[in-house]
Design goal:
Chain A is mainly alpha-helical. Chain A has a single domain, classed as ABC transporter involved in vitamin B12 uptake, BtuC (Orthogonal Bundle), CATH 1.10.3470. Chain A is built from 15 helices and two strands. Chain A has a two-stranded antiparallel ribbon with strand order 1-2. In chain A, helix 2 packs parallel to helix 13, helix 4 packs across helix 11 and helix 5 (122-145) runs antiparallel to helix 6 (151-169). Mean pLDDT of chain A is 85; it is low at 1-5. Chain B has helices at 12-18, 21-43, 51-76, 84-101, 106-130, 135-153, 163-170, 194-212, 214-224, 226-231, 236-262, 273-283, 295-314, 321-347, and strands spanning 158-159, 172-181, 187-193, 264-265. In chain B, 71% of the residues lie in helices and 6% in strands. The radius of gyration of chain B is 21 Å and the shape is globular. The chains are: A mainly alpha, B mainly alpha. Chains A and B meet through helix 6, helix 12, helix 14 and helix 15 of A and helix 6, helix 12 and helix 14 of B.
Chain lengths: 361, 348
């Protein structure tokens, strides 16, 4: 669709820019930024203030966007890979985050819902939750790769069961961890003015870029997504690669589970990471990646995630209630997809050509 | 669609192989549903013994049947519509507000419901079919929009106190000869709600539409292979558009049936109904890849999901999470069966 990057010599700069994959997300960001600048310039103000635990931290809407967008950015990484390799989306991530968070709390609390102290080091609990989330990811992956079930339907199973499983793991109790060290991952490390989730997201992004640069993961997932049969003829094992992408998705889910649980030091099975799968899929689509798989642009997806968070924060700022938020989001999404639809682009192309012909005449 | 009816039918296995994909999956679903229900009657008894138990299953799931039928149509065409749950909530809320605050009449409220459904269907169909945008994204936006609009219309859940509507809601259709005696020994007639009649009419109408009309056959053709459908002279764009319009209309009808069942408007109505509807369609043998599916199967899919829920709650596994887990297990089971059967068939 947007991959038409063959540069014609007589093509103007503008039309090349319009065709670029990053055009839509950047355009959306610019429009949002200008809109905020016009209505209320204080949107961009960053101040240093004291937070509830007495640390000096940076405050402001931009900081909160970077903070709150972390989870989405991390999930967008996994979602991009899953989309590219299997040509479908994982809709179970919200439920899987609930499972990962539940496992984390279960181990930290040691079966006690109001533990005085941590029953296990956080790193151990995190590693176990990683393992569990990766297992569930592998389950999705096996259904998709070996049983040839469409990804959306295969992950519908975990979507239906996930939150129930999460409640089951903790016997439907909501463990509250009072130990402040758990709060570092979703809040601030004492003495550091920047929220920790931002560092975690940055770390994840850095890792995935290094992986994409120094391994063949990107090449393999794309070739499996573009044409599974020819990938097979070239000696790749499409099934294994698909499962790997789902396992990576599981890893991302575990990281998000840690951040989410750390933010509130407890869990709510029915609301934790609710609808986050939809936002993550949107981030991938907004980044101009084809949802039918194949080529992908990781940077665009991650950028798309932050644009969505920017939009959410802007709407919250205008006192839109969190329940009514989806309606506005939907309008923006529709406008974006209509602009980027190939037919509409073609039509625009014709119009600009006509315009140019008139100009010359 | 491998339809090799030319083969001489020999043993049972041969016949099994001669079934079309659609009929094969339908057979599996129907057999499993009856096994499950009969198993429940034998081992659990209780509510399953009385015919009213079955009718209550219908009463509770009438709206889902209609929604799932709509989804089956879109899925047969190779698309997806995840906005139906949101549309259901929006329809309930709009009708509730209209009937309660404005004291409007029931007939107009039905029209309101249909109009909302049609509007969603037509707009989404337009974007999907003519602008060639992925149906998942379009209907995702539709779902967001419907859910958001529901809270914008009214944030708090409330019951409708409209006389004519309450009368319609309380209307019971008596099924003769199916009643049973209650504990005091009084004879109580078996009944179904109006919504069930609507749902059954919808199922019959769509069954005929898919089987015997030109549009119905085009839906299968477009879902099976868009390219060859185009070469057959089918207007692919229009067919896809119509599938979404139909699904939207059915979401409107389903929304009203739901509203009739619960009699209130609330932003949290029908949460996750789209996923239930998709799951029912799949259990009923519709494949998301398109071209395979059957409305009768969808009906049994909804009933299977409802039955398993009843079995779990009757078995005393009171904790809410068991329902989620067993439903997922069932979906998993069906998907694996379907996948294995399809792979086997392709090889033979």
């Amino acid at each position: 669709m947007q991959k038409n990057e063959v540069k014609k010599p007589n093509e103007s700069m503008v039309s090349r820019m319009v065709r670029h994959q990053m055009f839509i997300p950047v355009l959306a960001l610019v429009i949002l930024a200008v809109f905020n600048l016009v209505t209320d310039p204080s949107f961009f103000k960053i101040t240093v203030g004291q937070n509830s635990s007495g640390n000096m931290v940076l405050q402001g809407f931009l900081i909160s966007i970077l903070n709150d967008g972390s989870e989405l950015a991390i999930l967008a990484i996994g979602m991009t890979l899953v989309t590219a390799a299997s040509g479908g989306q994982d809709i179970s991530v919200g439920a899987a985050v609930a499972i990962a968070g539940s496992v984390l709390l279960r181990i930290l609390g040691g079966g006690n819902s109001r533990p005085e102290e941590l029953a296990a080091p956080i790193i151990v609990a995190f590693l176990v939750s990683c393992l569990v989330a990766m297992l569930f990811g592998a389950f999705n992956g096996v259904l998709v790769a070996y049983f040839k079930i469409q990804p959306m339907i295969a992950t519908l199973i975990l979507y239906t069961a996930g939150r129930s499983i999460a409640a089951w793991i903790n016997n439907n109790e909501l463990p509250v961890i009072t130990d402040p060290s758990l709060g570092y991952y979703g809040g601030y490390i004492p003495g550091v003015p920047i929220p920790t989730p931002f560092f975690i997201a940055a770390l994840c992004v850095a890792i995935i870029f290094l992986v994409l640069k120094f391994t063949n993961l990107g090449l393999y997932t794309q070739s499996v997504g573009i044409n599974e049969n020819s990938a097979k003829l070239n000696g790749l094992n499409p099934q294994v690669i698909k499962v790997i992408t789902y396992v990576i998705m599981g890893l991302c889910v575990a990281v998000v589970g840690l951040i989410k649980v750390s933010r509130i030091q407890t869990i709510n099975y029915s609301t934790i990471a609710k609808d986050i799968e939809m936002d993550a899929i949107l981030a991938v689509a907004l980044g101009g990646n084809a949802l039918s798989g194949g080529k992908f642009n990781m940077a665009a997806s991650i950028f798309g995630a932050y644009v969505i968070q920017f939009l959410t924060s802007t709407l919250y700022k205008f006192k839109v209630s969190s329940d009514a938020l989806p309606a506005y989001k939907a309008v923006v999404v529709i406008v974006l997809v209509v602009i980027s639809a190939p037919t509409v682009k073609e039509w625009f192309g014709k119009m600009t050509k006509k315009f140019k012909v008139k100009e010359v005449a | 669609m491998s339809n090799n009816k030319t083969k001489a039918s020999g043993g049972i296995f041969e016949k099994f192989n001669n079934l079309t994909d659609t009929n094969l999956l339908l057979t599996i679903t129907v057999v499993i549903f009856f096994l499950m229900y009969i198993g429940a009657i034998i081992f659990q008894g209780g509510g399953f013994l009385k015919p009213q138990g079955f009718f209550n299953l219908l009463n509770a799931n009438a709206a889902l049947i209609v929604l799932a039928c709509g989804l089956s149509i879109v899925m047969i065409t190779g698309g997806i519509d995840i906005s139906v749950g949101g549309v259901t909530a929006l329809v309930s809320m709009c009708c509730a507000v209209y009937l309660d605050y404005k004291g409007g009449n029931v007939f107009v409220s039905v029209l309101v419901a249909l109009a909302i459904g049609l509007a969603f269907g037509a707009f989404q169909g337009l974007l999907v079919a003519y602008l060639d945008i992925q149906p998942f994204i379009v209907t995702l936006a539709g779902m967001f929009f419907a859910r958001g609009m529901t809270t914008i219309v009214n944030t708090k859940p409330f019951n409708v106190a409209n006389e004519a509507f309450t009368k319609l809601k309380m209307t019971r259709v008596i099924i003769p000869g199916m009643g049973s005696a209650n504990r005091k020994g009084e004879y109580i007639d078996a009944y179904v709600e109006i919504g069930v009649i609507v749902a059954i009419l919808v199922v019959i109408a769509l069954f005929c539409l898919l089987r015997w009309t030109k549009l119905g056959r085009s839906l299968y053709a477009v879902g099976g292979n868009r390219q060859s459908a185009l070469m057959l002279g089918i207007n692919v764009k229009r067919t896809r558009f119509l599938s979404h319009v139909l699904c939207g209309l059915l979401a409107g009808i389903g929304g009203y049936v739901y509203f009739l069942h619960v009699g209130s408007g609330s932003p949290s109505h029908a949460l996750g109904a789209e996923m239930d509807a998709i799951a029912s369609s799949i259990i009923g043998g519709t494949m998301l890849t398109g071209g395979v599916g059957n409305i009768a199967g969808t009906f049994f899919g909804v009933m299977s999901l409802g039955t398993i829920q009843n079995i779990v709650s009757q078995a005393g596994l009171g904790e809410a999470w068991w329902i989620g887990i067993t439903r997922a297990l069932m979906l998993c089971l069906f998907l694996v069966i379907q996948s294995i059967v399809m792979v086997r068939k392709k090889k033979s």
